[in-house]
Design a protein that fits this description.
The relative contact order is 0.09. This protein has nine helices and four strands. The strands form two sheets. A two-stranded antiparallel sheet has the order 1-2. It has helices at 3-12, 57-64, 77-85, 93-96, 118-141, 163-192, 200-217, 219-232, 235-251; strands at 31-37, 47-53, 97-99, 114-116. It has two domains: 3-141, no CATH class; 157-251.
Amino acid sequence: MTQLNLRGVLHECGFNSSSYVSTSKKKVPSVVYVNVKTPCPDWLGSGIVGILVDYDAYGKQIADGTITETPKIGIDMETITWLQQEGYPNLTVADVEERYSPKIWTDDPYLKYHRIELDSVAAIVGGEGLWKYIMHKLQMEAPQGFDYIDEVTRPANEVLYPKTVSDLLSYINEYTDGILKDENEKIDQELEHVSELIDIKAKEDEIQQRLDDIVAEDEGIELIVKKLGELFKKLPEMLTESKKKGDKEEND
């Protein structure tokens, strides 16, 4: 099959398809490994790996040759029957099969002289039809559905802060950079040309203490702390209410 066509279908459906050497003139068996994370028995790990292959001697050899039991998602006679029942009643085996002479032995009488390629099916039912069949096979292997908990990234809390809060935190950070600028330049000069080996941890502790003292004695920081202190008195109560609300929603 021309792997470029199938790769295009998979790419459109959200798969990160590899750039296989589709420019090669040599006819090669087609195989796509599909890794889907889904709840499954412990011995299978955290997901399933299926193989999407042509219905030919090579595809059968690949499917039969896996060390562990691997779901075969590819084309076979059942595929044609399923597609006929799912919106493509006029599709026939004759529409998609072709004669060939495999260079390997197969115990399947049909595959000794005929094959059905993924691209041949896609040419008739389109990418949508092929993808519909692939999803049918994947859903059979994952009856509990697909587990996306670790795949979908949720925003960090700080991204959700109201603009006023974000602006305040940015201002405090920039202000602190400003009051520490001179001292940090001195520290850079001290560390740039050290004539002997030093205790790194001790030096880090010394630097932190120097910077802490500057921040603690700054009048601007004292004013910020004073104003925020009034809010902090209410925060424990707000935090308790937030936890109660979360527990209630979880129990509901």
